[in-house]
Amino acid sequence: MLRGTRWSGGFSRLKPALHRFTGGGSPMLDHLLAYFPPHTHPLSLVSDPDDLLGDERILAVLAERGFRLLAERDPIALRYRLQQCLPLSVQTPVIIVTAEALEALPYDLWQQGYHIILALHEFFPNIAYPALRELSPGQRQRLSAAQKQCGTPRHALAYRDSLDYLLQVVFDFAPSRLRSCADWLAWLERYHACNDPMAQVFLQHLGSQLRHVALLASLPNDEMLRDAAVYHRFVQAEWSKYLEKQVCERTDGAYLSAAMLPFATDAALHDLIPRLVRTGTLTPVALANAATLPTWTRPAVVQHSAERQRQQFAEGVAWLEAQLPLNTAAATPPLRWEQWQLVARRWAQISNWHAAAEHGLDHDQASSYRLLQARLDAHFAHWLHANYSALATRALPIPHHLHHIPGWLAYRCQQQPDQRIALLILDGMALADWLLIREIWQARHPDWHIDDRLVLAQIPSMTAISRQALISGMRPAEFASTLLHNRHEQQHWSNFWQRQGLRPDAIACAHLATQREAAYPEVIHSRRMQALCLVSSVIDAKVHKESQGAVGWQATLGVWLHANDGQHQPIVWLEELIKHLFNLRYTVVITSDHGHVAALGMGLPQEGVLVESRSKRARLYSNPEIVRVVQMQFADTIVWTDDGLLPAQTQVLIPQGRRAFAPGGELVLSHGGITLEELAVPLVTIMCS
Question: What are phi and psi of 279, to 5 degrees?
Fold first, then answer.
């Protein structure tokens, strides 16, 4: 397989393993887990400079075995977290993870802990370490699984040879296999569907190889590699251009510029069209005279726009059903968070279409939506139970929980010390809301580069708890004294950034009272300002007033996005604020503290003052006995507790599925629970080019 020190040939045999991006069978995974047998060591100390324990599946198995993992960099915070885990025992063992040598830990811990030293190069000794370091945890597992099947390099590879090898083995990329534009689009489709992007060094190396592929020379390859949205827009624009040219030439003979993608002559592109439609990359184009087009175009052409929406809805449902087996136990291996983000986006899209009554879904489609909704809720609840707490330890380089965001912002500031940060919190903005907002902003502001991903809101997804976690950068257990209100948000924000070394006059947290006000908060103009947090509650306020469920909310949101009261169009006020922040050299980051969901009332508990806090989707208790009594009255509920994030003894009673603590039969729009819509919230970075 090896010629000198360069990787060559034999790659086609690797494809079955490599395309199972969520698959198992990784020797590295098994080897790492062997260090942590259950009920053996009460305290394990792990030196892990390469973040080998950062893989989601490893974290989930460790949590299942009863381990609590502490990865605090600050020694005071580490002591505090460890104190909460006392007494240590083999039944509830603790793992302390550090990127440094174990000798750097406090001596008393070093003395009593079981020592483990992990090193990435020991698993892949013949691959250049600097290249290995650039792989994400999931990509390392794919490399390990591939080498199990096909072996390892026989000789040590140089750095550039290692990049070639990793591109081929981990990312299924080899320039010699790009014989047509269809091959390149098919690779991009697989790559972006994985939702586990390669590091900059791989992007640059791959880009340099593409420049030698003549048939791709005219395409925006670098941009499509870096941003899935750019890839989708390019394919859509090329398809529309091709169809427009075909129709015009067949009707009036008009000449239009040709598409860069050779749809007319490349049979492989013809075969790829149905797949692009099925995955949502290509939206069918509505054409009144579509019958004159070739047969192969039909999967991506419809007669009417309403027909297009119905087709997109059907394709979206089919795609989601393929990701979510009927039985949650059959989901082996389970979806990773990267895959859940794709599921959340597709679900938000079809939920928006479902709520738009004018699209006219038939009875069968409405029924399939309800069945899929129940399946989605069951799968996501099952995944949360295994992974939610474990992912709370994965703060950098990519945030997973809301309380990771301040640390992630500080990390970005360390990369660019002169950066000014403006965090804009849109209270209650769900992912489905964001998709509609993003569509409008992209159309109005082509010079805005919008990059978004998803993070997990705090459970319970109540404003008082989730927004405090977001602003403070702390787990709820660390602000237990203020758990039930938001009156200390400004102090939380200031405390966090002062710990990062900023002066108090460089920090501010302000509430935007209403988006119809002409004046912006004065604090944004301070030349000393470096860490700014702005909170808008306009979406959450409108959500709680909505009485017609998702359909009514989409109409209300549409008014907010498009209406003009003669003075200030609400969404334009927000856009102008963002542009003003750009002018003041802020990097703008937008997020939400929780989403929302339509739920049906099942009655109200009558426990009086015995409940600590209540909402229509969650109720907090500090007495387990009271929870048991209430749950006996409301069997269709779950108790969320002891997740390592909430204060000790905090018990959260949450309705299962789409039910609410509201008068029986009443339709409400609320939050607090654990549905995908409530917990998967957007984290958006906007830059102006």
Answer: -85, -5
The residue whose two tokens read 């370490």 is: 129
The answer on pLDDT for 189 being more than 80 is yes
165 pLDDT above the threshold of 90: yes
| Statement: residue 331 has pLDDT above 60 | no
Q: State the maximum Cα–Cα separation within the chain, in Å, rounded to a whole number.
A: 85
d(CA 436, CA 447): 18
Is the pLDDT at 588 greater than 80? The verdict is yes
**DSSP helix/strand/coil, 318:** helix
Task: Decide the pairing of beta strands 420-426 and 586-591.
Answer: parallel
At residue 426, the 3 state secondary structure works out as strand
Q: Which residue do the tokens 């039909």 mark?
A: 298
| C-beta of residue 654 within 8 angstroms of C-beta of residue 672 | yes
Give the residue with greater pLDDT, 565 vs 272. Answer: 272
State whether residue 425 is helix, strand or coil.
strand
Q: What is the pLDDT of residues 531-570, one digit of tens each?
A: 999 999 888 888 888 877 888 888 888 888 876 544 445 6
pLDDT in tens, 71-80: 888 888 888 8
Given a contact cutoff of 8 angstroms between Cβ atoms, the answer to whether 172 and 15 are in contact is: yes
The answer to pTM > 0.90 is: no
- Is residue 259 very low, low, confident or very high in pLDDT (cuts 50, 70, 90)? low
Give the bridge partners for 588, in sequence order. Answer: 422, 686
Domain ranges of the chain: 36-117, 173-302, 313-380, 392-597+678-688, 599-666
| pLDDT tens sequence across 99-123 | 999 999 988 899 999 999 999 999 9
Where on the phi/psi map is residue 332: left (φ > 0), alpha (ψ -120 to 50), or beta?
beta
More confident residue, 451 or 8: 451
Cα torsion through 322, 327, 328, 329, rounded to 10: -120
- The set of residues, in sequence order, having a beta carbon less than 8 Å from that of 504 and lying 6+ positions away, is 494, 498
Sequence-distant (≥ 6) Cβ neighbours of residue 507 within 8 angstroms: 493, 494, 497, 498, 529, 530, 531, 532
The answer to whether domain 392-597+678-688 has CATH 3.40.720 is yes
Q: Which residues contact 608 (CB under 8 A, 6 or more apart)?
A: none
Q: Which amino acid is at 133?
A: R
* pLDDT per position as a tens digit, 497-533: 999 999 999 999 999 876 555 578 888 898 999 999 9
As a whole number of angstroms, the distance between CA 621 and CA 611 comes to 5
Paired sense of beta strands 43-47 and 586-591, if any:
unpaired
Q: How would you class 385 by CB atoms within 10 Å of its CB: exposed for 0-12, middle for 13-18, buried for 19 or more? A: middle
Torsion of CA 119, 124, 126, 130, to 10 degrees: -60
Q: Under DSSP, is residue 68 helix (H, G, I), strand (E, B) or coil?
A: strand
Q: What tokens does 632 get?
A: 């006996």
Residue 609 and residue 215: Cα distance in Å, rounded?
71
Q: What does 540-566 look like in DSSP terms, one character per residue?
A: HHHHHH--SHHHHHHHHHHHHHH---S
Whole-angstrom CA distances from 84 to 77, 393, 458, 503, 601 are 11, 16, 19, 31, 37
Distance separating alpha carbons of residues 496 and 498, to the nearest angstrom: 6
Backbone φ and ψ for 344, nearest 5 degrees, come out as -60, -40
Beta bridge partners of 422: 532, 588
pLDDT at 515: 54
Instruction: Please list the alpha-helical segments (H only) found in 427-569.
Output: 431-444, 463-472, 489-499, 538-545, 549-562
